[in-house]
Protein: Dissimilatory-type sulfite reductase subunit beta
Organism: Parasulfuritortus cantonensis
Amino acid sequence: MAERTHDTIESGAPDPMPYMHPVMAKNYGKWVFHNHPKPGVLYHKAASGDEVWTVKAGTQRQMDHYTVRKLADIADQFADGYVRFTTRSNIEYMVTDGAKVEPLIKALTDNGFPVGGTANSVSMVAHTQGWLHCDIPGTDASGVVKALMDDLYHDFVNCEMPNRVKLSTSCCEINCGGQADIAIIVQHTKPPKINHDLVANVCERPSVVARCPVAAIRPALVNGKPSLEVDEKKCICCGACFPPCPPMQINDPENSKIAVWVGGKNSNARSRPTFHKLVASGLPNNAPRWPEVGAVVKKILDTYKADGRPWERMNDWIDRIGWPAFFEKTGLPFTKYHVDNWRGGRSSLNASAHIRF
Ligand code: SF4
Ligand code: SF4
């Protein structure tokens, strides 16, 4: 095997070994079994006899340095100074002495970090950047998550769901949050309004035309200046033209809404990966607490908790009971907007072979 080097690499995933707890590095690939002693705690036993307890706690993801220092102090005190963050912004502490597990849980909960998110609990919400980092959001994904997890605290620290529940929040329709059992995604309901004075200076018009999935954008001359026009009958309000051309303003406090999708799954454990499907649309984008979104998510979770069989993920449960029963049991209204089987996609989608960016 080639010698491992730790030179700085500016792209791709960094080498995790230098940052790994020494007992985990030593036993890498040599674990004999693992189990789940209680919510928020995983136990691993290695062939060498070494033991590791992993304690998982929820964080607010966007943290000031006081919070990061607090979490690091807890790591120094109980976990030999080693931590790792999961993709869902949980922090994990690895402990090699079983007697330290309960004091670590106490230190975390006393400092306001709930311990949970393992096995059949509701995990933390994977969320996209929101207003702080990205330049195109129609809502603040991080804010939605904070409001939602305040409501779902009980289901994070307890394992009462039929199986794991993964949630995600995405602040535009590009949905870089990915698939989830329940996904909360911005939904634009009006075509973009074009600021024609800026288009010629700011936008590369051919790339904007190529970006539209339904070929609704055409070059146009407006007031003698090169600009663009949108065929509003074709436009599906996806927002894809806004990132390469900000003068095509689509975010709007009234008409940018929030939709809820269910049944997505990335893994192929027990059943194949699936795409989530729309179940509630047109919910108000109501910062700072998004109560209407929270009510819909809670309704879906409560129904799944009561009706799902052990080990059924959200998509398995819906497959078993069928979509009519899903809408009946959750009480969510089924409307014409829920029906789209893309049978007309050949003629309505942009199927040309030219390169898009
Ligand atoms: S979901 Fe959209 S707006 Fe939010 S971070 Fe991803 S690309 Fe940016
Ligand atoms: S890219 Fe999307 S929002 Fe923009 S014109 Fe095309 S369909 Fe409408």
Notes: Residues 13 and 138 are 29 Å apart (CA to CA). The chain has eleven helices and 14 strands. The two ends are 39 Å apart (CA to CA).
